[in-house]
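Incident log entry.

Two folding requests arrived from the same account within the same minute. Monitoring flagged them as a possible duplicate submission, but the sequences differ. Recording both here for audit purposes.

Request one:
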Amino acid sequence: MTRRLFVQKVAVAATVAALGFAHAAAAQTTLKFSHTDQPGGLRQKAAELFGQRVEQYTQGRYKVQVFPASQLANDPKAVEQLQLGGIDFTVTGTGTYATHIPTLNLTALPYLVETYEQGWKLYDESKWLQAQFAKGPEKGFRFLSTFEAGFRSMTTKDPLATPADAKGKKLRTFPNEMMRWTLEAIGFNLQIMPLPEVYLAIQQGTVSGQENPVDTIHANKFYEVAPNVTLTQHVYSPIPLTVSEKTWQKLSPADRDAVAKAAREAADWSRREVRAAEEAQLKDMAGKGAKIARPNLAPFRDAVQPAYAKAKEKYGADVDAILADASVVRKAAPAK
């Protein structure tokens, strides 16, 4: 083979390879994943893992681009964008989805479960809860799996030993009636605001504190401005991962299976990591000046009873249904 012919063949091969690469790149579809947590949080890492698995299991046909820290939308707006098809995935608390499926408010009943294991069994095995999730597609989004966030606790400027310490204090929360009933029953006055505004609001004295899971408190550094971290664990607060129904309907059956598999694997990772990281995160916050308190929960449990009464008045038999399922999982996996 002459050198000239060899060079020509190499050039042709390179051109074919380049065209093949360009075709593959053009064929790849980018899907948008929006969430409100900070880039350093475990929510972001779980979202990135989900994206990696989607790309792997679809043989590169789909790429997931993750937008943290409310870059695209806050939690309520992200769900609205799912419905419109403006974004493809989000992960947020059930209370956010409750705007569209009101019965999901009941997942925020205070002290429904006591341990992570109980919470996992409830979300995976409750027939009542699965029936609520099944309402998603007609609302414009589909539940894929449940990422972990943990149990919600308080960060306040002043100590919070009992509900009496909450009287007259203003606490930030998100727009959800069950959380409002619970926090008002404890004694707080409430201020609704998006998560990215909370740090500055506490710093400026607009509110005296906020409530969120430990991972969110740690990632957003709320302990810097509200150093009293009180482990009230008043609500178990996982964060279901959802896909836009418009996006789902565009996927082939094989790609749906791939996305669902990626969602399950990312959720399993999220559950393990959030539970495992909690004590280390508390230790890290304590080392930076936070005062970690583990109060007697009996007074808090007593204080929130009016929230159950209000829920029963509005939701009737649905309250009995979720309480029955929660009772089953508590007995199956009792707290040690």
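Request two (distinct sequence, not a duplicate):
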Amino acid sequence: MNYYKYIIIGNSAGGIGAIEAIREVDKTNEIAVISDEPYSAYSRPLISYLLAEKIKLDDIYLRVPNFYEDNGVATFFGTQATNIDFNEKKVTLDNGKKLYYEKLLLATGGTPFVPNMPGLDKTGVFRGFNTLDTTLELQKTISEKKGRAVILGGGLIGLKAAEALRMKGLEVTVVELLDRLMPLVIDQPASQWVETVLENQDIKIITGNTISEITGSFSNPNEVGGVVLKDGTTIRCDIVVIAIGVRPRIELVRESEVEVNRGILVNKKMETSVPNVFACGDCAEVYDFIMDSFRLTPLWPTAFVGGRIAGFNMAGDCKEYYWGTSMNSTTFFGFPIISAGIINLSDEEKSDYEILSQNTESFYKSIILKDNKIMGFVLANEIDRAGIFLGLMRNKIDVSEFKDDLLSEDFGLIHLSDQVRNDLLAKENLSCMT
């Protein structure tokens, strides 16, 4: 019988976090990892840098080549879990093999959302930009002298794809359905900063529009030749990247005993509604300390920490996930942006919050407060204090005594009272807060 005490379905950040946590507690019992990709775990946030040739292929992997062997992990790569029998504690793979477990972690991640439109089957259409295979195929396509690209989606994934393709010398157009870029991650002023940075690199931005059809080329109707937008505008191109967003991969459990909403429901121990079954990462709705509720937070750090919490609990070391919220950090052509917590407020909500902001010729800062506690922030091109703001936010520190200094150029730990500093030092690693 193919029995493993721990089976992990998924081999990205959550799976790696779980393996390492399990091995900190349990050095000997069997672990198996199942992944439909044939690769060792790699960093999805780095694929745009691989495409732009800012890093080499070997640099994208999260751990050394012998990581699985050194940790006593059996790998089932390039194969897919097709069924889970929670009564028999059995996972069936697409090759017919059956694996049995005592503890199971669902770290299945997300899958790109692709709207239905004519032309999706043409050569040169890439359905998502979140896998190594997509990146390698894009590299091959670019090497065949494809010179124009349209990106559908002005979120973080789409804009990183646009940046990488522009760095490779392609003419790039970004099409976003909403009225501005990165609407879920940053606020309107920061979005304008990003748009300016991209346009200065000759990336064309089209907002309030979308693609209605992908058309073929004159020489070969089966290859991408252009797109038609909803308003009738046509754009000639050789490549179309669909980067609207991702949906939780919950097909394995959608009709099962595991409770799901938009994603798999878990508690702070990352336990699902089925005993001995855990979930983490993009497929799970995890605790958000700002919202004080459970929701989808499809972020690499969230997946990794969630995997560690799940791994510890699977191995019998009780721990809870409590620190996560929406947090994003990225750069576009050397222009850095960090955001966390609540970013955008409706007109009705604004009366309940206080907004501190600075928008100068060289940087933008915004901090959202409620009851003198930081609930969210956006920093653009001046990000040095992000660690302190996050620590204050995470520990729900009353900032009233130094609120007027939060946006000052030299704001730091020196502005905090001894009591506040002691509270943070007791709870946080301040190595990143200087």
